[in-house]
Prior knowledge:
CATH topology: TIM Barrel
Bound molecules: phosphoenolpyruvate
Shape: globular
Helix content: 40-55%
Largest sheet: 8 strands, parallel, barrel
Number of domains: 1
Strand order of the largest sheet: 1-2-3-4-5-6-7-8
CATH class: Alpha Beta
Radius of gyration: 17 Å
CATH superfamily: Aldolase class I
Number of helices: 12
Number of strands: 8
Strand content: 15-25%
Amino acid sequence: MRTPLIAGNWKMNGSAERIRAFGDAFAGDRLPAALDVAVMPPFPYLQAAQHAFAGTPLALGAQALNPEPAGAHTGEVNAAMLAEFGVAYVLVGHSERRQHYGETDADACRQVEAALAFGLTPVLCVGETLAQREAGATREVVLGQVAAVLDPLEAALRKRLVVAYEPVWAIGTGLTATPEEAQATMGDIRAWLETRDAELAQSLRLLYGGSMKADNTAALLAQPDIDGGLVGGASLQVDEFYAICQSAG
Ligand code: PEP
């Protein structure tokens, strides 16, 4: 059985006050037991979040990393630094990083390796643009992004990843892929994994991302190959995010 995972990507949003509010709201033990939850605030809040989330079910995530070990990389943060602040998950290849900061599949490979070397779980984000979907290239694009990162990795390391399918046209737009549309592509990803390693295909968690909200979570997660969600906008409101977690259990 794959434990569902709900991860909240705050992007460049948040505040010390919001960190405290999340720590307070998730204190206590009211979430479904078989559920993993992570919150990914911007870098400056990681230390405050590490304290505020202690004793809650919230794991800490980061939104990006630089794969270099150290040195002259102004403005960047590496995997060792994230590990030092208790970060458990890190996004790799988010479409906003690919589109606005020129990150490629090759960068994603190096980031995954660096994250794994420091015990972090990389959440590899893949997804097609609207133009690619309309051109009928969804499967080719998505499987190409998955293969580019998983194929070069040692078999034992592949098991330590999470993959998030995020159709780019559904991110931050209010347009959600229907559960059937999401399942079609995520089923393709699972079938591709099967061609590499049957055990991996059974154990690797696939998240859906793209305008996920409390009112569509249950229907998305009812699909056989959707094991959780990567939530952007709706992860910023503590009540909404809590409700998404309740629906995922
Ligand atoms: C995301 O940024 O990963 C995301 C899914 O955003 P949203 O939920 O706002 O579409």
